[in-house]
Write a structure and sequence with these properties.
The chain is mainly α. Helices cover 73% and strands 0% of the residues.
């Protein structure tokens, strides 16, 4: 094919790649600033300074800090969806699928702690003033989808006779998520107060073992805890 035809296409691809790289640079800076300052106290100017760009440049990619926050939140939710679906669709037994999801929760926090701080903003009273109702509805939709995926794993365990038949599957997922967020908050609070904060891995493992004891039927064989985080 003549170069005069392929060159514009190549240029367009390069520009799109550069634009995405710049967008990720901005989101990386926003994630750090939100984690350090909190969403309400963060400013576009501070985010621009962190990634060494002019404020006007940021507005070419995002209309507001709210849009940056929502982009980060949706990005994290998508990572969760992919990991949960991979666990659910694996050939492992439901208890091991649920264990894989729980392990992902820990690994994700260890590798991306800023995302968890973004999740924590969802409990802030200023949320509805800062984000539009349509966006809040989309957050609820995506979160609900991820919760349903985990609930399907619990339901599969019930159908296989491994989990108690009287379980409230959504309640199980609520407890799992609450446990994780509570453990993360406890560790970060202790760290801020200068107290030892290196027990998350142990508590994370123990919490799943305790939850699993409550899920299983009396005659269900227990799963090994080796390798659980």
């Amino acid at each position: 094919m003549p170069a005069t035809i392929t060159k514009p296409k190549t240029t367009a691809i390069r520009r799109e790649r550069e634009r995405e790289a710049r967008r990720q640079l901005i989101l990386g800076a926003a994630k750090t600033v939100f984690a350090e300052r909190g969403f309400l106290n963060a400013s576009v100017e501070e985010i621009a300074g962190r990634c060494e760009l002019a404020v006007g440049t940021l507005y070419r990619y995002f209309q507001s800090k709210e849009e940056m926050y929502v982009s980060l939140l949706f990005e994290a939710m998508e990572m969760f969806r992919q990991a949960i679906e991979a666990a659910r669709d694996s050939s492992a037994a439901p208890p091991e699928q649920l264990r894989a999801v729980w392990r992902f929760f820990y690994d994700f926090y260890r590798e991306q702690p800023e995302y968890y701080r973004a999740f924590m903003f969802l409990r802030n009273e200023g949320l509805r003033d800062a984000i539009s109702p349509d966006v809040i509805n989309e957050i609820n939709r995506r979160a609900g989808m991820n919760f349903r995926l985990v609930a399907e794993i619990v339901q599969a365990g019930m159908a296989a006779g491994l989990y108690r038949p009287d379980l409230d599957t959504r309640g199980v997922v609520d407890v799992l998520w609450s446990l994780l967020m509570g453990l993360v908050q406890l560790v970060e609070t202790r760290r801020n107060l200068g107290a030892p904060a290196d027990m998350l891995e142990t508590r994370h493992r123990e919490a799943f073992e305790w939850i699993e004891c409550g899920l299983r039927t009396k005659d269900s064989p227990g799963e090994t805890t080796a390798g659980t985080k």
